[in-house]
Amino acid sequence: MRTLILIGHGSHLNPDSGVAVYEYADLIRKTGLFDEVLEGYWKEEPSLRQVLRCAKYTDVTVIPMFISEGYFTENVIPREMGLGHQGPVPKEGIVRQIGGRTVRYTLPYGVHPSMSELIVARAHEACADISSQDTGLFIIGHGTTRNKNSSRVVFENRDRIREMGVFGQVEVFFLDQEPKISGWQDVFKTPKVVMIPFFTAEGWHTQETIPEDLGLEGQVTIFPQHTAFYGMPVGTHPKITEVIAHVAEEAHGLGANGDGGDLEPEQKKTWNEVLERARAGFRIGEIQITPIAGLFEMRPILDVGRDDLEKLATPEGVRHKVRRDDSGTYRPVHTLRNLPRGWVALLGEQDLARAIHYLYPAVVEEAFAFEKGEQHVTPWASSAGRQTGIYGLVQQANEEEVAEMVRKTCSSCLKTPLWHGQTLEKTFFQGVPGGIPCPKRVPSWWPSCAMWWVNGSSARNRKRQQRIDLLEPFELKKGAPHGAPFLLEMLYGFRLIPLSATLRTPLHNQNRTFSYPLRWKYPLILYGYFRNLY
Known about the structure:
By secondary structure, this protein is of the alpha/beta class. 31% of the residues lie in helices and 18% in strands.
């Protein structure tokens, strides 16, 4: 018996970011190759630190749903999942024993050689009349200067496709490293150019930044020297499920149908306890669970007694329904007190467990461990120290500011922040529906805190009024050295804050590499502050 975990990046802003992982998990679940299929995310729930505890079986295969190797697959995911590994992952993957489970961590699915065929398939979808005489293929990669392995797979696909002889020209361009996508018209000699994003899913880049930066007007755009055909991301192709299955089968030579593990003992105890309570009627968070003729009815507590409700019959239906609140706003934090109303689900035992998992990821496992006194609490300082990029700002907050952040950002959540020293007397297992422990910050908490910390702290605003010099806006001209922002900060303590919402790349306050978008004339402002002010 085996569990497959698909790891995605996720987003606290874009609800579509994690959808592709969910969809592929659904498809693989239907194949029956694995006894259980779960999803885990860096910026959504269940988080990388939670998802292993949710695995029902002791043999677990973890596949990063990333298009290439890089910082996340080599550093972030292994670190957050406690794999005890940093750096490039060998071709055969790595195996670790964690909490009684055998965990097999593989390379990202995007490095599999069969991805080249899917790129070509996407190209044929975008342009029906492809000829090696007049059609070129433009593979769009993200790229990064932080990890050379990130772009290697893109070039490998380019080389394999060139050998196929399908296109007259095959080239690679990137968003965040050379060669940049702005130079494509100078390179392509073919009159027709098919552009395929080598990305995992539809999102901000594929739907907004790439079309805008390339000047695309739709699926087909006519330029003076070329006709461009813009295709769908390769990572959304239906045959990705076959690629994922191949990656899983190749993990340490163990086929997906080989001998696996057993039911994990603590998982069995945890969910037996939930089912026992559900059979007598059970409340958890904002949900009421009621037994009905061998099945279980699940509905929002505020909808108890109503008959005019939308009927749901699957865990996936519940997942889709609760992804947004009643106003249509995305809910990256599942335990916020904004559960949408107006629905009821009728489910069997197995589907009930999955529906609860989608409603409140890892909440059951963490609450059961808390009841037994076995839930580890991760203090603020430990989690803050792992944040990078713009989220690293929170590391500079003092105790007063952390307390204010908790009041502002946690007051609308059902969870009790144990990580901030608050206490919880009883959980929903003891009849308190809102008794949910929070042993560590949820993934989307950091972006909210970073923005609040920069803009909303009353203490910080007072400091700004007293001590921060606001300098005149200026424009960063094309051709300016990339290291200029870093030098300004390191030498003078200034930080660059974008005024334009269209700035593509976050300013990483702890990294030496700054990659700006193709339009260089962005108004920026220098906040002349020194680190000791913060």
